[in-house]
Design brief:
- With 399 residues, this protein is mostly helical.
- 68% of the residues lie in helices and 4% in strands.
- Helix 1 runs antiparallel to helix 6 and helix 8 crosses helix 14.
- The chain starts with 7 loop residues before the first helix and ends with a helix.
- It is globular.
Length: 399
């Protein structure tokens, strides 16, 4: 049996560790001629930490300054686009073409983000024109985003967890920095919130809503045990993670226009409010979480296609006629679940942000409890994936 073991789990874990090592090196490489002494720890707040969850670079001055954000944003846009076009369009759209379009879109997003970031960079007594140094920085950051995109794709295919290990490294880095910087008295409330949030997320991950289904192909004692399972939180904490990326889009747009209209009071006012350190910015962020939770749930679970598949197979939900009634029933069910889970996610996120705005906890700790949600949401599927490959290694000789 030992000879037949594939060591699939070991190979995938080693590849993921190698990719993470490259990622750690890339996020410590300074951009050409940038002056790190111009950036100080005292400037950190919830907004900086929010950005570092995706980039790992709180100050945005390394080669990997853009982090995983362009990759996630482009993937989400293409994901939504493909879902809106329907199943037939998805079948005709080859994976190779999808990868090329996603890479092109990611490069455009990365370049736009890099242009916005480059404007605020501080360089060491430059021997050349500052504008040339900014162009070099834009090229470096864009190239870094492309490298991260490729690493995430390779890890998704041959490693463990897709892009989530990179986010996990950033989250753990933030937690470690907070623990080292603050005293236990300052950390006591955030840690309590962390434990509560982790417990709530774990509970919602394991509670299933079972919709009984009558299968025409099953005529035994298991006929009564067939059902459609929906989690209490249909897509977990994905909205919390991806809201970070979507929250930066309006910031990026306003900041881009500020390059041309830097004296505009209106643009400066909007940009100042689009920040997690303000009530307006926190409200926008929570609204994005709620909307993404609903949109992603309907895109991923596709109640319309689910009802169509039941109709084609001749199966039906117990007590509900197949076809349009089933579609309406599934949509109502999913709408209730998404509204409930969205409110819970926003409540959990809003508690720590509200405490920060009221001055009860440090702005740097505003997202400390939220990292517990993200950490729990990442580790649960990672654990299940590792467990699956471990079982594959154990039973591969039967295949």
């Amino acid at each position: 049996m030992k000879k037949n073991k594939t060591h699939e789990l070991r190979r995938r874990l080693l590849l993921t560790l190698l990719i993470l090592a490259i990622y750690m090196v890339g996020r410590s490489l300074l951009l050409y001629k940038v002056d790190p002494a111009a950036y100080q720890l005292e400037d950190l707040n919830s907004q900086n930490i929010l950005m570092s969850m995706l980039s790992g670079d709180r100050y945005q001055y390394t080669v990997f300054a853009l982090g995983i954000m362009p990759y996630i944003t482009s993937a989400m846009i293409m994901w939504i686009f493909m879902a809106m076009r329907g199943e037939e369009f998805r079948l005709r759209f080859s994976p190779q073409r999808l990868e090329r379009v996603t890479l092109l879109l990611m490069t455009v997003i990365a370049a736009a983000s890099a242009v916005s970031r480059a404007d605020s960079l501080v360089f060491k007594e430059p021997a050349m024109d500052v504008r040339i140094l900014k162009i070099i920085a834009v090229l470096e950051m864009t190239a870094g985003a492309v490298v991260i995109h490729k690493m995430a794709d390779v890890n998704k295919e041959k490693g463990i967890g897709g892009q989530t290990p990179m986010i996990l490294v950033n989250v753990l880095d933030n937690l470690a920095a907070a623990i080292q910087k603050f005293t236990w008295e300052e950390l006591r409330k955030p840690v309590m919130l962390c434990l509560i949030m982790a417990a709530v997320i774990l509970t919602m991950e394991h509670i299933l809503i079972r919709i009984p289904v009558q299968r025409v192909s099953i005529h035994n004692t298991y006929a009564d045990k067939s059902y459609i399972a929906l989690k209490l939180a249909p897509i977990g904490v994905m909205p919390v993670m991806f809201a970070v990326s979507f929250f930066t889009i309006p910031q990026l747009i306003v900041r881009f226009f500020l390059l041309f209209y830097e004296d505009s009071p209106f643009l400066q006012f909007i940009y100042g409010k689009l920040n997690l350190t303000t009530l307006q910015g926190a409200a926008v962020y929570l609204g994005i979480i709620f909307v993404l939770n609903m949109v992603f749930s309907f895109i991923m679970l596709t109640p319309g296609e689910m009802a169509q598949q039941l109709l084609k197979s001749g199966d039906s939900i117990v007590g509900i006629y197949a076809g349009k009634r089933t579609k309406r029933y599934l949509r109502r069910k999913l709408l209730l679940l998404t509204c409930f889970s969205g409110c819970v996610l926003c409540l959990l996120m809003g508690i720590s942000l509200g405490m920060s705005l009221r001055g009860e906890i440090s702005p740097e700790l505003a997202l400390f409890p939220a990292t517990a949600m993200i950490l729990t949401g990442i580790l649960c599927p990672l654990y299940r994936e590792v467990k699956a490959y471990r079982k594959f290694d154990s039973y591969a000789f039967f295949i």
